[in-house]
Amino acid sequence: MTDLEKAKNFFNDDKFATQAAGIEIVEVSDKYAKCYMKIQEKHMNAAHMVMGGAIFTLADFTYAVASNFNQTPTVTRTSEITYLGQPRGDSLIGESKLIKDGRTTCTYEITIKDDYNSMVALVITNGMKLNQQS
Questions:
Q1: Beta partners for 98?
Q2: Which of 50, 55, 94, 119 could link 62 by a cystine bridge, Cβ 3.0 to 4.6 Å?
Q3: Residue 133 gets which letter from DSSP?
Q4: What are the DSSP calls for 63-78, one per residue?
């Protein structure tokens, strides 16, 4: 089984991201993830623009995959999103990269881009690694 298959299998239990939001993991490696979300009617707000919460959900899930797959279980301590533009096209891609890895904390940068490779949002997330005591 490939790492991508293992990641998809493990994160399938994240029902909100995978089922409700329809996010799919497309690439995973050591402390890195790329996820895809096809923009659907359920992602739109009243102004018929992609809701900020849908964009943040993609960012949060992409971070979760990068920081938890084959890693010490990690949760978000803080997360800051900057919306940079309204997406164009039919989908969004989230990409999460490790910036700093400490003993008990970590920091990731997550970018959200549209079909035209334009930046839609930038997220910086600080995580806390959970203690693995029996």
A1: 108
A2: 94
A3: -
A4: HHHHHHTTS--EEEEE
Distance between CA atoms of residues 123 and 109, nearest Å = 6
pTM reported for the whole predicted model: 0.95
71: number of Cβ within 10 Å: 16
Could you give phi then psi for residue 32, rounded to 5 degrees? -150, 145
Q: Count the neighbouring beta carbons within 10 Å of the beta carbon of residue 67.
A: 25
Each residue's pLDDT tens digit in the chain (134 positions)? 999 999 999 999 999 999 999 999 999 999 999 999 999 999 999 999 999 999 999 999 999 999 999 999 999 999 999 999 999 999 999 999 999 999 999 999 999 999 999 999 999 999 999 986 54
- 119's CB contacts (< 8 A; 6+ apart) are 84, 85, 111, 112, 113
φ/ψ of residue 21, rounded to 5? -90, -20
CA 25 remoteness from chain centre:
9
